[in-house]
C-alpha cells in the first residue's frame, strides 16, 4: 500500500490539505466498489503531531507527526497563504529535513502552488521548472534564485517532483500519478467523480508528456487542451507559440516526445474517454464534441490508441457514482 503524507503547517490553506484527503477517499471508494485492494493510505501530518492553524484561522488536527511517515511514497504540500509568504514566511527546518530525507528514499512530491517554496527551500528544485500561483512567481524567483518558478494553470513534473499552479492543477497531478500506479481506466473513473469541473473540461491524463522545461511548449499544450474541439493546424499552433512551424515541431517533439498532431489526437481521445464515462451521449455525438466530424475516423483512431472501440471501452469501464 502506498503511504501518502499530507503536510499541515501553520498558515497553510486548509482546502489544499483536504482536497488531497478527499481525492484519496474517492480513490478508496472506487477501489471498494471494484473489489480491488486498497492502494493508498492518506494521513495528515504536522511536524510534532499537534494541531496547526490554517490560513482561515481554523484548527487542523493531524493524524500523526512527520516521524510516523518516514517511509511514505508520496508527500503532498498544500499552499501557504500569500500574505504570509510575502511577509517572509520560511518553511520549518524540521519539515525541510524530513522532506529531503523522504525524497532521497524515492518518495514523490506534489507541491501545490505556493507550497513549492518548501521544495526550493529544501534544495530539491535546483535548475528545475516549478509551477506556482501567478501572483508569486517574481517573489519566489527572487527568494530562491536556484529555481525557476512559472505561472502554470496545470502542473509541471520532473525528477519525481510535481508542482501545480492552481488547485485544479493539483488534481491533474494526482490523476497522472494515479494513472501511473493504477492504469488509465481507473484514473479516468476517478477524474469523472471529482466534482471539480464538468468531466470534458478536466485536463487530460497523459502521463509523462509534461516532464519538460520548455514554457512555450507548455503554453501550446494548454492551448491544445482548451481548444481541442476546434480545427487545429501546425500553422495555428505556431502562431500561438510565436514560432515558425519548423521550430514548433522540433521543440514540441523534443519536449513531449510526440509530434503536435499526435498530441492533439491523444488529447481528443482522452476527452472522449471522460464523456464516454460521464454521459449517455452516442459515440457519434462524442466524436463531434471532441473535434471529429467523421465518426468512422474517430472510432478507428480511438481503437488504435486504446485497443478497443469507444463502445467497448464504455461498456468495460462503466461505474456508478460512489
TrEMBL record:
Top-level taxon in the UniProt lineage: Bacteria
Domain HTH araC/xylS-type positions: 218-316
Matching SUPFAM superfamilies: Class I glutamine amidotransferase-like, Homeodomain-like
Keywords, alphabetical: DNA-binding, Transcription, Transcription regulation
Cited SMART domains: HTH_ARAC
Gene3D superfamilies, alphabetized: 3.40.50.880, Homeodomain-like
Record PROSITE patterns: HTH_ARAC_FAMILY_1, HTH_ARAC_FAMILY_2
One Pfam short name: HTH_18
PANTHER family: ARAC-FAMILY TRANSCRIPTIONAL REGULATOR (PTHR43280), HTH-TYPE TRANSCRIPTIONAL REGULATOR EXSA (PTHR43280:SF2)
Protein name, per record: Helix-turn-helix domain-containing protein
Amino acid at each position: 500500500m502506498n503511504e501518502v503524507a499530507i503536510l499541515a503547517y501553520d498558515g497553510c490553506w486548509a482546502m489544499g490539505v483536504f482536497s488531497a484527503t478527499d481525492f484519496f477517499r474517492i480513490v478508496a471508494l472506487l477501489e471498494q466498489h471494484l473489489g480491488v485492494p486498497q492502494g493508498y493510505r492518506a494521513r495528515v501530518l504536522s511536524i510534532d503531531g499537534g494541531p496547526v492553524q490554517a490560513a482561515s484561522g481554523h484548527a487542523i488536527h493531524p493524524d500523526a507527526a512527520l516521524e510516523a511517515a518516514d517511509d511514505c511514497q508520496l508527500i503532498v504540500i498544500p499552499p501557504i497563504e500569500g500574505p504570509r509568504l510575502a511577509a517572509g514566511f520560511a518553511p520549518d527546518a524540521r519539515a525541510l529535513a524530513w522532506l529531503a530525507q523522504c525524497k532521497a528514499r524515492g518518495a514523490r512530491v506534489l507541491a501545490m502552488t505556493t507550497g513549492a517554496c518548501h521544495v526550493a527551500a529544501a534544495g530539491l528544485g535546483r535548475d528545475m521548472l516549478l509551477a506556482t500561483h501567478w501572483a508569486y512567481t517574481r517573489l519566489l524567483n527572487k527568494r530562491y534564485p536556484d529555481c525557476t518558478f512559472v505561472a502554470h494553470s496545470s502542473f509541471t513534473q520532473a525528477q519525481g517532483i510535481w508542482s501545480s499552479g492552481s488547485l485544479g492543477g493539483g488534481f491533474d497531478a494526482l490523476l497522472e500519478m494515479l494513472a501511473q500506479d493504477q492504469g488509465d481506466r481507473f484514473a479516468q473513473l476517478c477524474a469523472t467523480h471529482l466534482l471539480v469541473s464538468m468531466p470534458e473540461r478536466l485536463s487530460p491524463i497523459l502521463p509523462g508528456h509534461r516532464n519538460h522545461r520548455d514554457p512555450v511548449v507548455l503554453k501550446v499544450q494548454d492551448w491544445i487542451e482548451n481548444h481541442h474541439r476546434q480545427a487545429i493546424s501546425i500553422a495555428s499552433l505556431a502562431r500561438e507559440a510565436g514560432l515558425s512551424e519548423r521550430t514548433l515541431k522540433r521543440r514540441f517533439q523534443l519536449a513531449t516526445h510526440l509530434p503536435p498532431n499526435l498530441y492533439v489526437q491523444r488529447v481528443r481521445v482522452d476527452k472522449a474517454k471522460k464523456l464516454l464515462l460521464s454521459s449517455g451521449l452516442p459515440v457519434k455525438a462524442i466524436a463531434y464534441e471532441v473535434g471529429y466530424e467523421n465518426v468512422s475516423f474517430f472510432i478507428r483512431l480511438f481503437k488504435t490508441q486504446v485497443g478497443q472501440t469507444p463502445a467497448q471501452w464504455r461498456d468495460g469501464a462503466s461505474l456508478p457514482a460512489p
